[in-house]
Amino acid sequence: MIENTSKVQEIVQFLTKNPGYIKRGKENLASLLECLVEEVIEAKKTLRGTVDNKEKELDLDNTSDNTISEFDRYLSAQRINPDDVKSVKYWQTASGDFRFSVVTKNEPLQLPDIDDVISAFTKSLEPVLVPIIETNSNKTLVVYTSDKHIGAYVPDNAMYSNPYSKEEIAARMSSILSEIKKVVTEEGSIKEIIITDLGDALDGYNAQTTRGGHTLPQNMSNIEAFEVFVEAHRFLYDKILTAGWAEKITIIHLSDDNHSGEFSYFANRTLEEYITGTYEGNITFKVSRDFIEPVKREDFTLLLCHGKDSEDMKNGMPLHLKPETEKYIIDYILNKDISNSNLHFIKGDLHQSATQQGKHFRYRNIPSVFGSSKWIMTNFGYNKPGCSFDLFEGKNLKQWDVWF
Fold this sequence. Notes:
There is one protein chain. By secondary structure, this protein is α/β, with parallel strands linked by helices. The protein folds into 3 domains: 1-53; 54-109, no CATH class; 121-403, 4-Layer Sandwich (Purple Acid Phosphatase, chain A, domain 2). Helices cover 34% and strands 22% of the residues. The strands form 4 sheets. A 6-stranded mixed sheet has the order 9-7-6-5-15-16, covered by helices on one side. A 5-stranded mixed sheet has the order 10-11-12-14-13, with no helix packed on it. A hairpin with a 4-residue loop joins strand 10 and strand 11. It is globular. 35% of the residues are buried.
């Protein structure tokens, strides 16, 4: 039993005024506040269900002077007239920093102009020539990444540990790079490397999916998530494009998904402009807004898909192939006149790895680079983070997963 109730109330008051600290572990808080771990646990129990520690409406009549001062500084930095503010939501990061989401009276809640974003990001690019490689190999290495959910937050009280910071994202991208290098070392020259992102690369926008109505626990602002996305992919693609590992490099990013939608399209297009504006050579970068993106090669065809779209689907495509799903895909193949007999339908969304051979195509689910959220852990169990690889040599295929 907790005897020092006054100390518990002190902790409750501290966490109420500084909600960003609620997400910290109980041992960390006990050390910071010089109290018992049991007292921290009791304080969090008191707060649970009564305090919204993620996001609040800013009420100037009932908000601390410190928060108002931070908000004033934010408006000044963003050159927003206080009289133009229609509504404000605010929250604190785990480190205690304030974040604000402002809607002005004359401005709907929407993304900025994409041309302005791309222009600002790519204005000083210098061209780099990709190493010229000639090979007689007919090997194609396909790298499947999906569901990176950059910006997602997994709290300490989740069933399983999955810390997901900027540094952890960089580490997982490094693991992908290491696997590609390993394959090239073992297999020798590669005709083409195809790198894919199957969607949900960003967790959402303004702490919601871009479909709206689904609040998400996040550890980054929109700007931070955007910058981490671009930085992490620039690192990966810079290394691959300058390594001389293949005769041709193809990069394909899907943006018809259920979490990041138009926000990921912005980030993907910025990345595309960076790559195509920087590198010259046998490279292709495509940002697809189609729900299914066919990739046709002489010996095989990939049908890339996130698995759940940005607007219409109530339920996503299943982990295991069902008759109605097989018919759905066959209808697409026939309508689009896709004649290659070596067909592979590759999808993400479910954060799990599974492969099944249908009557006319292979059906493969790709694991999530992010892994599991607290909600997934509680409802479905632990999904280990990872990505997937295919190595085609003519019509022969080797497939495997890499786990983080």
